[in-house]
Design brief:
Chain A: It comes from Actinospica acidithermotolerans. Chain A: This is ABC transporter ATP-binding protein. Chain A: Keywords: ATP-binding, Nucleotide-binding. Chain A: GO terms for molecular function: ATP binding; ATP hydrolysis activity. The complex is a heterodimer of chains A (308) and B (227). By secondary structure, chain A is α/β, with parallel strands linked by helices. In chain A, 33% of the residues lie in helices and 28% in strands. Chain A has a six-stranded mixed beta sheet, with helices on both faces. A four-stranded antiparallel beta sheet of chain A has the order 11-12-10-13. A three-stranded antiparallel beta sheet of chain A has the order 2-1-4, covered by helices on one side. In chain A, helix 4 runs antiparallel to helix 5. The two termini of chain A are 40 Å apart. Chain B is mainly α. Chain B has nine helices and no strands. Classes of the chains: A alpha/beta (308), B mainly alpha (227). The interface between A and B is medium-sized, with 33 and 25 residues.
Chain lengths: 308, 227
């Protein structure tokens, strides 16, 4: 099957600075993927290239097997909702009308219900919207477009927690009814974690983690307790992070914890806490996984790649 | 609906830009009446220039804030340009027709009853109605695509790029004026006001060719524009 999104050797340089550096990603159709990373990591540049709004210095980016730049057959199959979306001086209703002309799978009723959910009125000029309301408009367009490939770049900047939850709920419900490929860039990782099937973490223009969320869940554990007991449990394992305070120690262990080890931890008063997706992303951005185009868990957790 | 038509309609969404158009002529006419209406010659045709200049502004405004959202909706740069230029062409045709009708009315009423020239511009717009329609439509469209090109240059290279663009054109224009005023070549004759011996229709053809160049230049510039 042709991947929905495939990126190979993608590099984008700005006056000597590599915003993206030899990025390789493959995303299968019908999945929701989280695109994670620090500010300036290269997430927006990647999404802009995928949407044909930016051009790579080298490498290729393909949507359903074709390069998106200036190819309307490809472009009409995707929608890109940006955090900093610039709108012309039009009203909300006019923006939706323009979207209905351009998006072949547009659902006007769904768009109207989203506007109602977010408390937006069609006769209001876009330039008078608050930041959160603009984000809500972008979300309404991005969801109602039902494009085969939907790219969201921090779509909920300025939205309150209730509105963000509304976005997650509506996205999941509509995704279930109309499966599509969604690539969502976000900083609110734990909040959005339930949406993701896969995550791609980018740091300084390079992919540092590309894995299925199911594989990551419970695969990295923080072990804390008496130094001796923690050291005993960590022996021979990949240790990403090690902290020590007096007689207490805390380490981050990569790899699953066997039932025998859990029992040993319980008996010796050691706490085992699985790292959340956000904590894993932080570790990845800090270099715990090394830097490789596609990191499976087996290779990612290899001892020699750790930063113990 | 083709993407060009979609983009033309998309541009028309910013209605306030186009709602200004019908008000420019009566406004300028009123100014011409009170300023030159009582003077000898009563030639207010220069005030008509504002209508043409507004077309340049329309083209200029068509790019800046409209292009990013058009790309978000899945249009290509090429289609956005073509759709916007299509809108400009239709507006220019309609405006040209209106100017030709008003010119005929001005002639029939003896210069609005006061021997005033407003829609009759010597040499350029002073022939039969169809010449006026053709010439004004071509000039309006040329100014529109010229404005689009400026908008693209500003969108792509910012203020510095725009200033460089202006400087380059200034050099070309100055060189052109020097050539045109070269005594032996006689591009411009005061005794018989024509440009390089061209008829109005001939000059319209030259301007149309220039519009073609502007379209090619604009298309080439927008193809690598990023938002």
């Amino acid at each position: 099957m042709t991947p929905a999104i495939s990126v190979s050797g993608l590099t984008r340089r700005y006056r000597g600075h590599a915003a993206l550096d030899e990025v390789d990603i493959v995303i299968e159709p019908g999945t929701i993927t989280g695109l994670l990373g620090r500010n300036g990591a290269g997430k927006t540049t990647l999404l802009r290239i995928l949407a044909g709004q930016e051009f790579p210095s080298s490498g290729t980016a393909r949507i359903h097997g074709a390069a998106p730049a200036e190819d309307e057959q490809v472009l009409r199959r995707l929608v890109f909702v940006r955090e900093d979306q610039v709108y012309p001086d039009i009203k909300i209703g006019q923006a939706l009308r323009a979207a209905s002309w351009c998006c072949p799978n547009w659902d006007g009723e769904f768009a109207s219900s989203l506007l109602e959910d977010f408390g937006l009125q069609t006769n209001k000029p876009v330039k008078r919207l608050s930041r959160g309301q603009r984000s809500a408009l972008g979300i309404a367009i991005g969801l109602a477009a039902r494009a085969e490939v939907t790219l969201f770049d921090e779509p909920y900047a300025g939205l309150d927690a209730v509105a963000r939850q509304l976005f997650y709920d509506r996205l999941l419900a509509d995704f279930a009814a109309f499966p599509r490929t969604v690539l969502l860039s976000t900083h609110l990782i734990d909040e959005a974690a339930a949406l993701f099937e896969n995550v791609v973490v980018i740091d300084r223009g390079r992919v540092v983690l590309n894995a299925a969320v199911d594989e990551l869940r419970g695969a990295v554990t923080r072990v804390s307790g008496p130094c001796l007991a923690v050291d005993a449990l960590a022996e021979g394992r990949a240790v990403w992070e090690r902290r020590r305070l007096g007689s207490q120690a805390s380490v981050v262990l990569a790899g699953p914890i066997a039932p025998g080890d859990r029992e040993q931890a319980r008996l010796s008063g050691v706490d085992l806490t699985p790292l959340s997706l956000q904590q894993i992303a932080v570790q990845a951005a800090a270099g715990a996984f090394g830097s490789a185009p596609r990191i499976g868990l087996e290779s990612g957790f290899a001892t020699e790649r750790t930063c113990a | 609906m083709s993407t060009w038509v979609k983009m033309a309609r998309y541009n028309l969404q910013r209605r306030e830009n186009y709602l200004v158009l019908p008000w420019i002529l009566p406004f300028c006419f009123a100014i011409a009446v009170v300023t030159v209406g009582r003077q000898p010659g009563r030639n207010g045709a220069a005030y008509l220039a504002s209508y043409f200049i507004y077309f340049f502004t329309l083209g200029l405004q068509a790019v800046g804030r409209s292009l990013p959202f058009a790309l978000t909706l899945g249009a290509s740069r090429r289609s956005f340009y073509s759709g916007t230029a299509l809108l400009g062409a239709v507006l220019a045709m309609l405006s040209g027709l209106m100017l030709a009708a008003l010119q005929s009315t001005e002639r029939a009423t003896g210069g609005w009853g006061m021997s005033m020239r407003f829609f009759r511009v010597p040499y350029l717009l002073d022939g039969p109605w169809y010449d006026t329609w053709l010439t004004s439509a071509v000039v309006l469209f040329t100014l529109f695509v010229y404005g689009i090109w400026y908008g693209i240059v500003h969108s792509r290279w910012g203020l510095l790029g725009t200033l460089t663009f202006i400087a380059a054109q200034t050099l070309v224009i100055v060189a052109g004026v020097l050539l045109a005023s070269f005594e032996h070549w006689r591009f411009w004759s005061i005794g018989s006001p024509t440009f390089a011996g061209l008829t109005t229709v001939g000059l319209t053809g030259v301007i149309a060719a220039l519009a073609g160049l502007l379209v090619v230049g604009g298309q080439a510039t927008i193809r690598r524009a990023t938002v």
